[in-house]
Amino acid sequence: MSTGKFYIHTFGCQMNVHDSEQMAQILSDAGYVKTDEADRADIIIVNTCSVRGKAAQKAYSQLGRLKRLREKRPDLVIGVAGCLAQEHGTGFFRRAPYLDLVLGTHNIHRLPEMIEEINNTGSQVVDTSFHESVRSLGIRTLPPDGNVSAYVTIMQGCNNFCSYCIVPYVRGREESRAGGDIIDEIRFLADNGIREVTLLGQNVNSYGSTLSGDTDFPALLRMVSKIDGVDRIRFTTSHPKDLSERLAGCFADLDNLCEHIHLPVQSGSDHVLKRMKRGYTAGEYLKKIDMLKSACPDISITSDIIVGFPGERDSDFQKTIDLMKEVRFDNVFSFKYSDRRGTASEGYDGKVEEGVKSERLYELQALQESNSLEKNRCLEGIVKDVLIEGVSKNNDADITGRTRGNKIVNLAGDIGLTGRTVRVRIVQAHMHSLRGEMV
Ligand code: 5AD
Ligand code: SF4
After folding, report:
1. 197 pLDDT exceeds 70?
2. Fewer CB within a 10 Å sphere, N or C end of the chain?
3. 202 lines ligand 2 (CB under 6 A)
4. Per-position b or e across 389-409, b if 16+ CB within 10 A of its CB
């Protein structure tokens, strides 16, 4: 058995958070011990994201800080994992010669043996090879004690090649995980006290396309919904072009499927959507929204939007604003376009000035803030089911949980309620959370 303490810094999306959980699991299985104090760790892994320039920058800053720690402690093992590691491979050793390890997105399962190799040989180790079948898809993790919610990977990679997106290059082609494995893992989680699962994939709607048999995503959801002990099911991320009537039907039929969908629209302009290679028009997107709302009138809808995509004119941006006014999203994650290496749009003309991107982002976010607050205000006075997750981040005296629509609710209550679903009257709406009282 190996010994030593490890610490993992995580940047990026839910997929990355789950990858870090998997790394922690296999390191623990190999005998290493997790620590919450980076300064005391013998092994530090920086799990990176390269989907946008800003996310990549954060990871580089963290690596810069670790350089100083390494100078004080030459025996420290420092690794970089995730999408940025996959993108740059051995190039990372030139940029940061103090690194010991570069771990690509398909090779998480090799982490312990790679650390052992570093410890035995003192050499730098890299593995960014791609595999048709990704072994880490099946690494089971159990979130820390007291967590009520867990991620379960159902597929990874992406075949869509949206013109701005680096994901297909750094995560590889789509691969779905066998339905039986997924069900077994969720049963195991439910037996261990997990009440809510979030099914993860870059593009969950195309689940099943790489499997023999005819289990597609709606069929998988119906199987998962039958598992005893799982009170809530969520999933992310859905691609609008693949959202079917059958999936919308799941929201109407399955009691434990939460009334929330994250459905990135990216832009409200057909001209921009075409250049983004998204495969739908704004009108088609709006039809899918109507379909969801007729299946599930209460559904909360969140989205991702990019501003300043190459060729985006003022009139295109205005169409995005119009679409936001029409849909009235519950929340929007909005980003300034950044060139990503090797993507199609890196070579597009019509690049938008930074200042213009900032102005557009500001206008969009101001609109969303007012929409979010207005939508939250509609909940005042209403009683909602809230799954309690633990102590509130903002106030130790409060507990916190989420509605089925994925809104955060803070309330006075006993920490012993963690893992229980309680009836809560919403008494005050804020922009990003709600205040409630138990009824
Ligand atoms: N520039 C800005 N935003 C991007 N996203 C993906 N690639 C880029 C890029 N090159 C955003 C999209 C996606 C989210 C995860 O990140 O909105 O849905
Ligand atoms: Fe990127 Fe498009 Fe795939 Fe989403 S669907 S991961 S935006 S290529």
Report:
1. yes
2. N
3. yes
4. beebeeeeebbbbbbbbbbbb
